[in-house]
Amino acid sequence: MWRFYLLSVSVVAATQMQYVGATGCDIVSVSSPSASTLEVEWSNYPNASHYLLDLRVVNSTTVAPVVVMQQPPSTHRLVQGLRPGRNYKVTLKVFSFFNILCTDQELTMTVPATSQITGFRPLSSTSVSFEWSSVIGADHYILFVEELFGSQKYNQTFTSVSLSGRMDGLSPSTTYNCYILSSNSAGKGAKGRIKTVLTLVQPPTGVTLAVTSKSSARVSWSPVDKVLLYQVCVSDVDDASNGPVTKNTSNTYMDITDLQPCSNYTVGVSSVNIFLLPGEAVNVTHSTSPIKKVTWVSVDYSCSNGMAAVTWDAVFGADSYIATAVDGTGASLTCSSASTSCHIMALKCGENYRVYVTAVSDDCESTSDASYLFETVPCAPVQLLASHECFSNMIVFSWQPTNNTLYYVASSQDNTGQVIECRTGDDMCYFTNVGCGQFYTFHVYAVSSECNSEVSPPEFVRTSPCLPTNVRTVAECQSDTLITTWDSALGALSYTVEADGNMGESYNCSSSSNSCAVTGVPCGEHLSVWIVASNDNCSTSRVLGEVAQTVPCTPTNISASVQCSLDFATISWRSGNGAIFFIATAEDEDGKPHSCRSMGTSCVMEGLSCGRSYTAAVIGTNLKCNSSRSQEVSFRTGTLHHFLQQWFSTFFGS
């Protein structure tokens, strides 16, 4: 008998529990005899005053630990009150009074709780289905089926996620005891309550069916041992809405009546046990008033009108026939006839049709096993696309592939009516060496072994314009305008002229005709002129035209020097850009003109009258255009008195 003593608080507080390092305490074994117990055995330790076992559920803070003490010399303990199917950490502590001499730990598990069969049902004479309850900690469930009055035993293991299963291979009309065991790594749980089940009676043998009239038949079979009744079930195979008819009999035959003409039936016969549960059925089939099927079908398809002439062989007893053509989507077209041919109209293009023929009588109909497969004319290609790279001489014409096609014929026609064909098995054609400035029309049609499709709708494409030619630019002798002209380019809808000068500026103009004016160009410029032709799709590369030159700039800083001479004056100026040479003009009071020319910046104007007042100006020219007239300068020639005074001063001294 265990004795425990309560020490005073002061004694406990004054006493310190010491751990004395030692070796040699070992947990020898831990087993789970039941779902709530663990049996622990450990090695004997010398000088031990008592042993302490601490059992805790792993990774749980809600389940209280179980702590027990054991007095030497016993080294074995059965611990009660544990949780089924849980992982436990078992700790052994060896004490010498208040000192811990040694510890050891072991991880283990309790076996799962008891699982129970919650439901069962005989499926046949050799099979039973079961359901069972789930228990914590079970890794597997083992179903046991044992013959009650015999030696046959069966078992089958299921995973923890399976809570139902079936046992096959049993004997008919046999009573079995059944139970379930749960198991995990610790072992098997307790055996569940036994359920008793009786397998169903085996089905009859020798089931045959004999026709007794147009709408009736007799089904018969051999007798079966341990049977209470026989169940006959008649099902209409062709009409699922017509539910099965079930009847019981103690005889080994049954007459079936009210069968519909030209129908297919399944007749099942099963054995019924003393609990009025039928076993699996043995089935036979029966067809009433059958009409023979057409044995061959032929089709003559016409490409031109999309019609198929269907012919077949005659069937004895048939009043009429229905020919059905089914396409790849399951859609069908039909025609009917009392003879052995008919015409199916409105067939779709690009389809594969399979034709069946159904023979029809007053009572029933039968569809042929024989059929005929044929192709219809390809559809006209769609999703046309003609693409042209602006700086390429090639057009790519493509379309969506069509069914039943061997190859395609694509054609192009230009502005002049010239036609080029391309034949290909692909879904595109490459038309090379196309001309500039052309408007092409494309068509395509598909070719099969028998027929050609309709021609597709047209697809249009415009190629790049041709290059403009004979590009000329004139200044019109105006200070800020250039007029550019050119010969029209084939296929061009508009033109853009670009001019680049030497002052870092660019100028442009656009036109839909064959000339345009560039404005805002300063005087004295020399320009490079390009032109680009465009249409809705493309633009040409830049074409260089003749060099352009604007009107010369007006000379500036005009001055006149007479040096007291009688008949000439020196006119000077500052050169303007773009001038090749200059012309200076002067008029006296009477309007009499005088002039001189120079490629430099001055010239001597001779033949003037002495003692006269003159007004002079200068213009620059590039041989095509003259600059505007410079600002005027006034001067006066010397008199005779001045001339003589100068002459005497020169020859005689002052």
TrEMBL record:
Gene3D superfamilies: Immunoglobulins. Keywords: Signal. The keyword Ligase does not apply. InterPro entries: FN3_dom, FN3_sf, Ig-like_fold. The keyword Mitochondrion does not apply. Residues 113-202, 203-292, 380-466 form the Fibronectin type-III domain. It comes from the Eukaryota. Residues 1-22 form the signal peptide. This is Fibronectin type-III domain-containing protein. It comes from Gouania willdenowi (Blunt-snouted clingfish).
